Model the fold of this input.
Amino acid sequence: MNGVSVVIPTFNRSGPLRRSLASVFAQTVAPIEVIVVDDASSDDTAAVMAGLQAPIPVTYVRFERNRGGGAARNAGIDRARGDYVALLDSDDEWRPDHLERHLAHAAGRSGDFLQGSSSIHIRGERSTPRRYDRDFEGRAAAGMDFILKMPMAFQSSTLFAPAATWRGLRFDERFRRHQDWDLAFLALARGIPLRIWPDTTSTYVDSGTAGVGLSAKLMPSLRFLVKHGAFISTSSRLRFATLQVHRRRKATGRYFAALVASFLTGAIGLKEFVFYGRECLLRVVRG
Done:
C-alpha cells in the first residue's frame, strides 16, 4: 500500500492555505505527500510555499495563466504517487482523523469507487453540521437529485478515491463552476459506486470570496444544466436554475416569480424560500 496523496488547488488564498496545510500535517494517518497547484495567483502564495516547513514532502506547481479548478485538480492528480487521492480546497480544513476514517471506509474495497464524508459549514460566526449517510450504487438519478437538492451534500474537500478512479474520471476543464458535481454525475453515469459517509471530518469555510477559477458569470451554470439537464428531475433543474440566478443578478419581479415557482413545486423548502425571498426584497429596497 502506497498511502494517500493530498491535492490542494489554490488561487489567491495564501492566508487560508497555511491553515489548510496545517490541518493536513496534523492528520493521525499522515499522507505520503501534498501537491499544491497554484492557479496563477497574484498574491504571495509562491513566497509562502517557498518558506514552508513541512513534515512530509510537498510539491508546489504553479500555472502561468489561470485555468480553473478542474485543471488545477487534474494536474495535481496526474502527479500523485499514492494509491489514493484526497482533495482539499485551500480555504477549508480537515479534522485530524479525516484520512484515518476514509482509509477505514475504503478498507477491503477494490476497483473504482468514490466516497465523501460529511462537513461542517462555517459562515461568519455560524457553524452548521451537514451530515449525510447515503449510498448511490446503481442509482444514478437518485444520486444526481440528492447532490443538487441537499445543502453541502457533495463538497470537494471531503472527496476520496483510488488514484486510478480519479484518472479515469478527470475533471472537465471547460467548467469554471460545478466541477465537483460534474465529476460526481460522470461517476454515477458510469456506474461507479458513490458513498457519502456521515463522519463530519471536513470544515467548509464560506469566506464569500472567489475561489479557484470561480466565475461570477451565469454561462458556466447554464452549460452544466445543458450537459446534465436530461438526467435531472424537473424540480432539481428548477432549484438549480433559480439559485444560480439568485447568486448572480439583482432582484427582479421575474426572479421572484421563479422563486415562488421553485417553492410551490418543492424544489426549495420553506426556510430557503424565506431566506432567498428576504434577500430578494432587500436588493429591491437597496436599489
